Amino acid sequence: MTMMSELQTVLTVPARFRGPERSANGGWIAGTVAEALHGAGNDSAVEVTLHAPTPLDTELSLHHLANTATLTQGDRLLVEAITVAEELDAPAFVPFVDAARAESGFAGLVAHAFPGCFACGLRGPGDGLRIFPGPVDGTDLVAAGWRVPMSILNADGTVPDAIVWSALDCASGWAHFKPGEFALLGRLTARLHRRVYPGGTYSVVARATGREGRKLFAESAVYEVDGTLLASAKAVWITPAQGTEPGRAGTTAS
Fold first, then answer.
1. From 30-44, 97-111, 121-135, 228-242, the region with the lowest mean pLDDT
2. CDD domains, from UniProt (predicted)?
3. Number of H helices, E strands in the chain
4. Rounded to whole angstroms, how far apart are CA atoms 183 and 252?
5. At how many degrees (to 10) do helices 26-38 and 161-174 cross?
6. What is the pTM of this model?
7. Which one of 25, 50, 162, 238 is most buried, by most CB atoms within 10 A?
8. Which residue did the predictor score with more confidence, 87 or 28?
9. How far apart are CA 82 and CA 47, in angstroms?
10. Could you tell me which of 162, 232, 174 has the C-alpha nearest to residue 202?
């Protein structure tokens, strides 16, 4: 019998990649653990479940065994990623001009539960991603024109997978949220088909696909300007218990 050895590394989440003020952006940490599972640029679908908030600036343990990767803090399970054989539906393409126009209706411009969020927060250009999905006229979609900062790149000149997961994450939430509303990302399943490049312009599109009790369901995608699908995802969000304040959210949110 051949025994499969476990690989373990130490991971620390810089405060830049926050969602709420004290924990990681859900998409960023999901993408980071997914990349640990398969490596950068792999086009396999990965399902990532967020069990608890991932703290910032704290040494955490990243474990990789066969087709599973987990992130822990001591004995506490934070994040778990597994490979899945699943085809992900994508919301319809929205041209970049129309996606950029939709940003004026972004609910977070009126009231934002997490204004410092790396992906959709109101941070300075080049610091956050500034993805502001707003309603697309005549459709059930929200969309934003994503202008990828030059400050984000891998050694090979491409954008890290975790950044693309961040874009897919927050857009799916804003498909449901009204001004000031928030929910907690519980699970994100994504597939990255092609690479994203710094300085590029892309359409980020999302659509709400249902609700069941406190669970919100949505799908999201990133498109090239010519309509080529670059990445797709489906998300499960958990709405907070009545009266819960954003700063007291019980699981990772973005």
1. 30-44
2. hot_dog (cd03440)
3. 3, 11
4. 9
5. 140
6. 0.91
7. 25
8. 28
9. 5
10. 232
Q: Where are the alpha helices (DSSP H) in 24-144?
A: 26-38, 96-102
The Cα–Cα gap between 107 and 133 comes to: 8
Tokens of 160: 């890290």
Are β-strands 141-147 and 201-212 bridged in parallel, bridged antiparallel, or unpaired? antiparallel
pLDDT of 244 > 80? The answer is no
Q: 43: exposed, middle or buried (C-beta count within 10 Å: 0-12, 13-18, 19+)?
A: exposed
Q: Report d(CA 125, CA 111) in Å as an integer.
A: 19
The C-alpha atoms of residue 196 and residue 201 are separated, in whole angstroms, by 9
Residue 67 in tokens: 């087709």
* The residue type at 217: F
